[in-house]
Design brief:
This protein is an alpha+beta fold and 72 residues long. Helices cover 46% and strands 19% of the residues. The protein has 4 helices and 3 strands.
Amino acid sequence: MQITATELKLNMGKYLSMAAKRDIYITKNGQRIARLTNPSPDRVAMLDSLVGIAGAEDVSLEDIKKERLETT
């Protein structure tokens, strides 16, 4: 959900309650300036945010571990 900074100021309580369930992006002059989010997101939401990071190719867990160790 995306709202303006003015809308947030006018209805802060409403958006604080809504932030427990989903992220709220705050805009000012048409630009995103902040995100109101739950401090302890559930695992499904976290997984959804990671979709696509590993790429489309088939990558095994061992390949990921090996690559991570090489970059550190």
